Amino acid sequence: MSHVKAGGTAKNIHDSPGQRLGVKLYGGQKVKNGQVIVRQVGMTKRPGDGTAMSRNFTIHATRDGIVAYNKRRVRLFSGRSVRRTEVSVR
């Protein structure tokens, strides 16, 4: 007969690795065509000149240059105006 009583079930054993989101290149850094600048969930940062956004909201460079971040006012669907960060390549 066993000496250990029933331990029950473990419910919190599944774990997934992190998605490595965030800013990959900061303002003033050099970037090449196709390089990832920002990996994000949702449109926390908007693409500007010299950048493009892919289906998973990743912002890529479309030309060689230097990364620049600036604040911009964006009108939401409700009509409210909010500040958002725009990523561009100069």
Question: What would you say about this model in short?
Answer:
This protein is mainly β.
Helix-strand layout with pairing:
Elements: E1 22-23, E2 30-31, E3 36-39, E4 45-47, E5 51-53, E6 59-61, E7 65-75, E8 81-89
Parallel strand pairs: 4-8
Antiparallel strand pairs: 1-3, 2-7, 3-6, 5-6, 7-8
Give a description of the structure.
There is one protein chain. The chain is mainly β and 90 residues long. It is 0% helix and 41% strand. A hairpin with a 5-residue loop joins strand 7 and strand 8 (81-89). The protein has a single domain, classed as OB fold (Dihydrolipoamide Acetyltransferase, E2P).
Question: Notable features of this structure?
Answer:
90 residues, mainly beta, OB fold (Dihydrolipoamide Acetyltransferase, E2P), 4-stranded antiparallel sheet, 4-stranded mixed sheet, elongated
Sheet/helix structural class = mainly beta
Q: Summarize the biggest pleated sheet.
A: 4 strands, antiparallel
Average pLDDT across residues? 91
For the record, the CATH architecture stands as Beta Barrel
Class, according to the CATH hierarchy?
Answer: Mainly Beta
Task: State the total count of DSSP E strands.
Answer: 8
Number of domains: 1
Strand content: 35-45%
Our Rg estimate from Cα atoms comes to 21 Å
Q: What is the global morphology?
A: elongated
Strand order of the largest sheet: 1-3-6-5
The name of the CATH topology is OB fold (Dihydrolipoamide Acetyltransferase, E2P)
Distance between the termini: 74 Å
Encode the helix/strand succession as letters. EEEEEEEE
The amount of helix comes to under 10%
Per DSSP, the total helix count is: 0
How would you name the CATH homologous superfamily? RNA polymerase II/Efflux pump adaptor protein, barrel-sandwich hybrid domain
